[in-house]
Amino acid sequence: xxxxxxxxxxxxxxxxxxxxxxxxxxxxxxxxxxxxxxxxxxxxxxxxxxxxxxxxxxxxxxxxxxxxxxxxxxxxxxxxxxxxxxxxxxxxxxxxxxxxxxxxxxxxxxxxxxxxxxxxxxxxxxxxxxxxxxxxxxxxxxxxxxxxxxxxxxxxxxxxxxxxxxxxxxxxxxxxxxxxxxxxxxxxxxxxxxxxxxxxxxxxxxxxxxxxxxxxxxxxxxxxxxxxxxxxxxxxxxxxxxxxxxxxxxxxxxxxxxxxxxxxxxxxxxxxxxxxxxxxxxxxxxxxxxxxxxxxxxxxxxxxxxxxxxxxxxxxxxxxxxxxxxxxxxxxxxx
Length: 335
Ligand code: GTP
Ligand code: MG
Fold this sequence. Notes:
Blueprint: H1 17-27, H2 31-51, E1 56-60, H3 62-65, E2 74-79, H4 87-100, E3 104-109, E4 116-121, E5 126-132, H5 135-148, H6 152-167, H7 180-192, E6 209-213, E7 216-220, H8 238-252, E8 258-261, E9 266-269, H9 270-273, E10 287-289, H10 304-323, H11 327-331
Parallel strand pairs: 2-5, 8-10
Antiparallel strand pairs: 1-2, 3-4, 4-5, 6-7, 8-9
Magnesium ion binds at residues 61-62, 72-73, 75.
């Protein structure tokens, strides 16, 4: 399904692949970064186990999914039996404990969709978010990590897109633009739709892994080592893919009707999801289905004004890659 006509990328696009790959390499977290991260997690685990010996800490988000960069925060999920208490009470108690144990800038953010404690580790400079029993996030982190092992171009594309989104100020959910997680889902969906395909749809295959979260099953094929040459027939370089990604979101995606779904490995319709009208604050102007919480649209934060901004950024990026003499420089110019 192509809209906006067939447009081919410039003949010399591949010339920009080495430049893009070196940007990708420079974004990778260093060994020092990773060891500071594990120190932070160890001291966090100590503080928590004093109060709640039976609680478990899970890492999720990009520090666990391999989509991390040196700018990523540390996302931690505390798995704990809350009994008759509430998540909010528990978070407030957690904040108290962390302050006593000399963590810095500890703050309980209890009004968010997913309530968290946020803190800053002054030693390492890391920002760390702690949530309670958000096992969907732990499950989707594993899914992302497994996708990343199938074809190296996913990590490259997603890291570059996330970097671009941060610099162009379209990675700020509190301002109505998209989360990093949303951009990674957009990249996976895009690579599932290439011809020949670069990624399979793991949730459409015979499940080898199941995790039950809140009575719903998160199941998919996770023996990804068997799929290491899945995308081999497709020879597109990271430069072609990056341009095609922006071109898709600038000109080909039908914002009125389409929902991207990595769960189905294809585009589905707003109609079948009942995402055609605004419900409360969810406007569904740009629809990105969560793979496990299928009622959850990662694009719900986008409004009439920010969708214009985001689409203009996609158009700008596609145009720069298509026409500029030095696209790598211009593309990432801070907004
Ligand atoms: P960076 O920290 O920017 O490197 O990206 P990240 O991959 O850690 O993503 P982000 O901080 O946006 O989200 C962390 C994790 O939260 C994701 O990997 C998901 O597992 C989970 N998550 C689930 N639902 C949502 C959601 O609606 N918004 C966000 N932001 N995260 C979600
Ligand atoms: Mg994160």
